[in-house]
Input
Amino acid sequence: MAEPTIDVRYVANLARISLSEDEITLFGSQLEGVMNHIEKLSEVDVQGIEPTSHASDLSGGNRARQDVPHQSLPAELFLQNTPDQSNGMLRVPKVVDA
Amino acid sequence: MSLAASSLSSLRRQLTSGKITARDIVEDVIAQVTTRDGQIGAFLTHNPESALAAAEKADLSLPLGGLPIGIKDNINVLGDPCTCGSKFLKDAYTAPYDATVISQLKNAGAIPFGRLNLDEFAMGSSTENSAFQATQNPAAPGHIPGGSSGGSAAAVAGNLIPASLGSDTGGSIRQPASHCGVVGLKPSYGRVSRYGLVAFGSSLDQIGPLTRTVEDSALLLNALAGHDPRDSTSLNHPVPNYCEGLDEGVTGMKLGLPKEYFTDGISPQVRERVESAAKKLESQGAEIVEISLPHTEYAVATYYIIAPAEASSNLSRFDGVRYGNRSEAPEDMLALYKDSRRAGFGSEVKRRIILGTYVLSSGYYDAYYLRAQKVRTLIRQDFQKAFETVDAILTPVAPEPAPKMASATDDPLKHFLADIFTISANLVGNCGISVPLEPADGLPIGLQILGPHLGEKSILRCARAVEAG
Output
C-alpha cells in the first residue's frame, strides 16, 4: 500500500477548498491517524476478488429508463436559488479571456 | 397523553372513528414544538400555516391521512428550505421540488412537517456537527441524541411529533434511534427512492422512518417503499404489506449472534441488554445460534474509504454557482469555488472531502478505493453466508449508550470506530432496525436486528416480538 502521509494542501486544491494554515496542520495530523487505521486493509488477501461498487446485487446496478422526452421542472424554479443570474442564465466570473 | 405523543396507528384509529380531527393533531404538534422544542432543539424551522392548511384538506380515507411526519433537513420538500445543517445552504436554497418519499407521503395523506436538525450533510453521529444548533437527547438530557438523524430521533422521543423520516448512510437512523429510545429502520438499498435526498454516499444512503412503535415503522415503510423511475438504483420489486404478519412471533426463526461483535469494545451494559434480549427471543420460540462475520474488523476502514470518496464527489455540486453560498466578488472561477466552499462547509465536512479526494486521487485509487471495494465484496460474502443459515442477526447498535454532550474528542478515528455495528448493513445493502430495550441507568439502549436484502418483513416481525417483550 502507498505511503499514507497526506499532502493536505495539494489535496485541498484538488477538492477546490481553501484551507487555513491551522486547518492544514490539524487535518494533516487527524487524517494521519485515520490513514494508519485504513492501512489495516493491506492485511486482506484480495487476490481474484471482484470489487463491489454497488450495495445490492439484487438491484443489478443502474437501471436505465426508456429515453422518452417528458416535461421537466421549469428553469425559473431552479434559478430562484442561484446567487447571480442574468437573462435566464447563471452568471459567474469571466472564465476565458476575450 | 398528548396527540403528538401518540403512535401513528393509535391516531389513525381515533381519526377514523371521528374522535379527533387532523387539525387537532397538527395543532398539538405545533403547540408541543412551540412550547418545548426550545429545550430539545430538534426542529430547525417549521411552517405552522402550511401544516394547518394541509390538515384542513386531509383525506382520512388514505393510509396516513392527516398524520404529520417530521422531515430531516436533507430531504427536499417543495417550497421549504433544505439546509442539510450547513451554512452553505442557509437562507440560500428553497426546494424546487418534492423528494419522491415526500410525494409518497403526501399521496398517502400524510403531512410533512418541519425541518429536523442533523450533523452537517449527515456527517457525524452526535448532531453536534450541525452549523446551527446541538440537539438534546430528550430521554437523557445532557447527552447527545446520536446522529446524524438526531433531530428526527429527538423529535419523536421528545413527544413533539408522532414519527419522522431520517437518512442512514452508516447508521444515521439506527444509532440515534438507539440513543433516544425509539424505533429506527434502515430499509434495504434500493427499497426506498433516494430522489430528492441530498446525496452523501450514493451507494450507501437510504431514507427510513423513526417511530414510537414497530407497527408505525411498518405503516410508514408501506408508503415509502417502491420503484421510482427517477432513482435508477431503486428496485422494481413488489412491495408487500409490511403490517401483515407483524404479530406472528419468532417461533421457528433462527437468529444469529456474530461472535466478532461481542468484543471488549462494548460496554457491559450494552452487552448485557443485547444478550438478555436474545435469551428472551429464545424463550419466545426462536433458535439462537452463534455465527461468524470474519471480515468485521475491516468494515470501518472500508467504510471510511468508500463513504468519503462518494461524499467528495457528491459534494462537488456545492460550488457556489447554482445555489447556496457564493463568496463575495471572487476574482476568478477558481477563487469562487474555493472561497465559497471554505466559508460554507464546517470542519467535519471539509475533513471528509479531503479524505475522499485523497483516496480517489491519481496514484492512490488502486491502493485505497479499489482495495476497499474488494474488501466490501468479502464483507458482503460474510453476510450472504450467514443468511444462508439464519433469518436475522442480532447485534448492539452502538458500543455504549449515548455519551454526554460536548464530550467529543478531537480524534475522528474514535468516532469512526464507534460505527462498527451499523456500517456493514450499508456496505452490503441489507436492512436493519433498532428497537428499544430496557434503559440502563436511565440511558436508552437499542437492539439492532439485521436482515438480508429485502428481509424487512422478518426484521419487523422480530422487532415486534422484542417490543412486545
Summary: Residues 366-389 of chain B form the longest helix (24 residues). Chain B touches chain A through 83 residues (CB under 8 Å). Chain B has two domains: 1-291+378-409+421-469, 300-367. The longest strand of chain B covers residues 111-116.
